[in-house]
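Predict the assembly for these two chains.
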Amino acid sequence: MDTINLTVNGISLSGHEGETILQTAQRAGIEIPTLCNDESVEHYGGCGLCVVELEGTAKLLRACSTLVSDGMVVHTDSPRIRQSRKIALELLMSDHEGDCRGPCTLKCPAGTDCMGYVQAIGRGDCREAVRIIKDTLPMPATIGRICPHPCEEACRRRLVEEPISIARLKSYAADVVLRSPDPWKPTVSPPSGKTVGIIGGGPAGLSAAYYLALKGHKVTIADAMPQMGGMLRYGIPGYRLPKQILDREISDIAELGVEFINNYRIGKDETFAGFRARYDAVIIAIGAWTGTRIDCAGQELRGVFGGIDFLREVNLGHRPDIGERVAVVGGGNTAMDACRTAIRLGAEDVRVIYRRTRSEMPAQDEEINEAAEEGVKFEFLSAPEEIIGRNGAVSSLRIRKMELGEPDAGGRRAPRPIPGATEELDVDSVILALGQTTNVSGFEDIVLSRKGTIAADEHTFSTNMVGVFAIGDATNGGADIAVAACGEGHRAAGVIDAWLRGIDLPYRKPYVSEREVTAKMYSDKEVIPRASMAKRDPGERRHDFRQIELGLTTEQAEREGRRCLNCGCHDYEQCRLIRYANTMRIEPERIKGDKHPGYTERKLEAIERDQGKCILCGLCMRVCEEVAGEGILGLVGRGFSTVIKPEFNDPRAIAVCRDCLKCVKACPTGALRAL
Amino acid sequence: MKIVIGEGSCGIAAGAGKVHSALESALGGTQGVDLGLTGCIGMCFLEPIVELRDGETLVRRLVRVSEKDADVIAAAAVSGDLSMLDRLCIQPEDEEFLDKQTRIALRHCGIIDPTGIDEYIACGGYEALKKALLNMTQDQVIEVIKTSGLSGRGGAGFPTWFKWNATRQSPGKKYLICNADEGDPGAFMDRALIESDPHNLIEGMLIAAYAIGSSEAFVYVRAEYPLAIVRLEEAISQAKSRGLLGENILGTDFSCDITIKAGAGAFVCGEETALIESLEGKRGMPRLKPPFPAQKGYKNMPTNINNVETFANVPWIILNGGEAFAAMGNQKSKGTKVFALTGKIKRGGLVEVPMGKTLRDVIFEIGGGMIGKSAFKAVQLGGPSGGCIPADLIDTVIDYSAISATGAIMGSGGMVVLDETTCMVGVARFFLEFTTNESCGKCVHCRIGTKRMKEILERIVKGEGKEGDIELLEELCLAIKDGSLCGLGQSAPNPVLTTIKYFRNEYEEHIRSKHCPAKQCRNLLRYVIDPEVCTGCTACARHCPTSCISGRLKQPHSIDSDKCIRCGMCVSRCKFGAISAE
C-alpha cells in the first residue's frame, strides 16, 4: 500500500492510499468531531462537523469524505472551522426536542442524578442508588433528611399528581446501605503527594474533603467546634437529623484518610498565614454563624437569643433559659427549628412572629405544619418593634401589626406597618431567627464581596490569594442550603484537583437541552399518590429530640421509585451531540425557532425512536442497510420536515426488523433506545 | 394559406387549445387552408398566438386570440381578405420582442411543428448528426465544442467540452444524461425547448453520446411537464423509426438509445449528483464530489450530464462550426443565453440574446420596460440560488463572471423583473421558504439553517424584527454557504445576501421603523381614507369584514386601525381611490 505524506496542523503524517483525512488524523490522535461518520458504513457528510481547511482550496472540506493525497496541508482547527462547527451545533440544538437531564437533577444545587437513584431504588437496588448519589453528594443519609429538596419542586410527577419523594428516597437508600453488612465504598486514587487544608467541617468542607481524598490528595479539616458537621450538627435539631446518622457519614469521610482537627480557630489558635503555609491548597469553608440583628430596641436584654446561637447551644447539650413564653421572630427554616426546639425544651407558649402571611413564609410547608402540630402559634403580619425588659431581662415584646402592600418588582408583596396598630405580648425570651452572616475575623488578607462575605470566583472558587479557595455559606451570595454547600464542595474539588495537577479547569455549568412540558402530555399516566411517611405523634414527639420521621418502608420506597417519569435522556453520558455542544460553548438561544416534527415510535419490538432527538445523521438508516443488510429505514419528507421512518413511510417495512440493535448502537444521540 | 397556432404549455394555458378546436370547426375541412400547430413562439404576453403563413412566409401574426375570433380568422384565411384581422394583429413595437433576439437554441421554436419529425428535417434537422457520425471523429466533435466555448447552460457555466472529454477519458461504460429537471420558480426555458423542438434535443444528445462514447442516454424531466414528456416520447419513436436513434444510427456502428425518466418533483434533483441518485431509484440526495459524475456517475460509471439548453446548441455548432458560435458573445462567455423573462415587465416571454448584452437590453429593449407606472427596482436572476440585481446595476453585462460579481448567478435563465411595489425582504423570504421546503435534509446547515433564516425573515416582515437580525442573517448565510455539500445549500443564501447587500436600508426600515417601503408587508401597513377624496358612498364600510370603517352617508369615512386586519378589501371597493396604505 502506498504511503501518502501530508501535513495536519503542522505535523507531518503519513496516510494510506484510499484513506480519508479523518482516518489519518484519528490515527495520529488528532480529534476531528463528527456525528454522522462511522467506520462501519460509507461516509455521508451530513453533520458538517468534520470540516477542515485544505491549503489551496477555498471551500471547507469534510474530513470524513476527503481522501488524503500527497502534499496536502490540512488544518483541523481555525476560527473559520470553529465557527462552522459551532453554528452546525447551534442549529442542531435549536432543533432538538428533549431533556438531557431530568428537571430534578437540573434543580438540585449539587446536580445529583435524582432520576438515576430514584429508579435504582424502584428496582430495589439501594447499593446502586447510593453509588449514584455519592457521585455528587457524599452524605445522602444526612442530606436526604434535611434537604428542602428543590428537586421535588421541579419534579414533573407534579403534573400527574404529586412530586416523587426524592429526598426521603435518598435517605432511605442511604440508611439501607449503612445498615448492610458490607456498605458501598468508593474507589480511592493512589496518593498524589499533594495536601489540602480545609477550614470548616460543615457540608461544604466535608464534601470537598471527600472528593479531594478520592482523588488521592491528603486532606485535613480544621474546625472551630468540638466535632465535625458544622451547621448540620450545630444548626439542625436532632429530631430532624439524628446525630448518629451524621456521625456515621462523617466517619465514612474520615475513613478515606481525611484528618480532622477540632476546637481550632483561625486567628485564635493560629494565623491564617501559618495554616496556609502547611498545605498545597487551602479551602475556606467557614460558613455563616453570626445571627443577623435587626432594628429593634432591647436586643441587649437577658433572654434575647440569636436563632442560630440558640440552636448551637442546645445542640452542644446546653439548655438555655428561655422560660415558658417564647417569641421566635422570623419565618425561615431556622425560625422553625428554633420554635420547635423551644417546645422541646419545655416552653408552653411559643409564638412565631412573622411580618408577612403564611403563604410568604420561606420555611418549608412541612416544617410549618409540624411546628403547628407541636403547638407552636403564629402571629402573622407582625413585626417586632421593641423588646421590653424588667430588671435587665425580657418581659414582653411589642409588635407592630402590618399589612401587605402592592407587589414589588420581584412579585413579592412588601409588608408595611398599619399606623398605630401595636400589640404587646408577654414573653420570657425572644429568639431572633432572621438569617446569618459570616464572621471573617482572622482572614484579614482575603478580599471580601460587597456583602461582606469572602469573594470567590464562581468558576474557579479562587480567592484573591493563590492556592486559596473559598466555598459555601461564607462566600459571595452564600450557598444558602446544605445541599448547595455540598455541591460547591464537589465542584471545587474538581477544580482544585485539576489545579493541583497544573491544569486550569474552571467549572462551567453544562449546557443542556430542556423541554417545555404541559400536564396534557402526561394525561395517560396512572395516578399513584406520593408515599406518605409515618411520623411520631405530635403529642409524643414534642417532648424529646428523637427523630420524628419513621422512614419509608421498602415497599413504599420501591413503589415511589417506580413513579419516576424518566424525564432525562438515557444517553446523556454517551451523547456526542451534547458533548460537542459543551466543548464548543454554543449559544443556540439566539437562533431558536420551530422544531422538526417529533413523535415517539414504538412499533419496533425492542427499539424506541424519539424523533425529537433525531439529528438526521442517517447512521441508523445506513447501518440498517449497509451493516445489518435490511434497509428498513429511510428518509421521509423533504426539507426541514424530513424525518427518518420506515422506508417509504410504510410501517410494514418494520416487520423484517430482527432487533439486532445495530441502529441503536450507532445513534450518536438519545434518539434511539433499546427497550 | 396555413393557420398555425402556438401550442406550447403557455399558449395552451392561455386558451390555444380551445382556439385550435374552434378554428377546426370554423374551417370545417375547407380546402386550401391548412391548420397546424407549432411550439412556443416565445411571446407569453400575447398568448394565444395564431399565425397565418403562406408557405414559409409569415403573413399575419394574430395575438391574444380567443375562440370567438375563430370564425373571422377562418373567413379571412378562406377569402384572403386579411383586413378583417387588423384588430388582432400584433402591434409593430411588440415585434421588437422577437426582432431584437438572436435565436440559436430557440431557432426552431414557434416555427416548426414539434409533433412531427418532417418539419425538423426540412429545416436541416439531423444534418449535424450526419456530419458528426459520418465525417468527424469523437475528438473532432469535442474539439469543435471546445472551440465554440459552449458552457453549461444549467447555471454553473462549466465548459461543456471539458465534461465530455473527462467522461470520454474515464474507463468503463459511459452514460449520458440530459438534465431537464427545471425547477427554479419563474424558469421555463427547457420546457419550451422540449415542447417546441424535441428533435433538436435528441440530435444534440446523440452528438454528445457519440463524442463521449455512450450508448445509453436518459432525459431526466420533471413530471410537472407532461406535454414536454409526450412530445419527447413521440419524437423518440419518430427518430427511431427513421433510423436516427437506436441501433446502428445512420448505418454506422454507433448505437444509442434515449430513455425518459420523469422526476418526482424534488427541486434538489436538478443538482446533478442528486439527479443521478434519483435516476438510480434512490432518494434524490446529492453525493459528495469528488468523484465527479464524469468519473463515477450513474451506476458508478462515467456519466456526462448537460442541461437541455446546452444540448440544444450542439447541432447548430456542429453545422456552423465552433468559431461561428464563439463569434457571438464576449471575451468571457460565448454564444447565446435563453432567459424566461417574467415579472413586472411589459413583454414577458422567452428571450435569447448573445452573451455580452446588458440586462438593460433584455429588460428595456426586448422586454419593453415596466408594465405599470411603478419604476424598475431590481431583477432576480437564478431563482432560489440566485440574487437580486438592483436598478443601478442595470448595465451589467450578461456573462457568467459579470453576473456572479453582483452576487447573483446566471442560473438556468429565470429573469424576474421587480418594481417598486416589490418588498425585497419579502422576496428573500419567498425564496427561503422555497429552499426550506426543498432542502434534501442531509446537511445540517442547509436543513435547519435555511429554516432559521426564513423564521428571521418572517419576523422582520411581520414587524417583529430585532436589532442584530441582519447581522445574524449574514452570519447564517456565510455558515450555510460554507457548511453545505451541494449547490442548493451553497447558493440558498444568495437571495438574502444580495437583498441585504443592495437593499439593506429596506431591511432596516422594517426592523427599526416597522415600515415596509414597498407597502407589501401586511402587518406593517396602515390603511387611511383621504377625507378630501372620500365621497361617503359607504362601499368600503359595507364590505369591511371587521366593521372598522365608520362615517355617515356622504361624509368622509375613517378607519379604526386597531380593528383593521389589513385585508385590503376597502381599497378594492373604493371607486374613488380615496383609500391608500401607508
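Chain A has five domains: 3-77, 103-185+533-562, 195-289+447-500, 291-436, 596-674. Residues 291-436 of chain A form a domain with the FAD/NAD(P)-binding domain fold (CATH 3.50.50.60).
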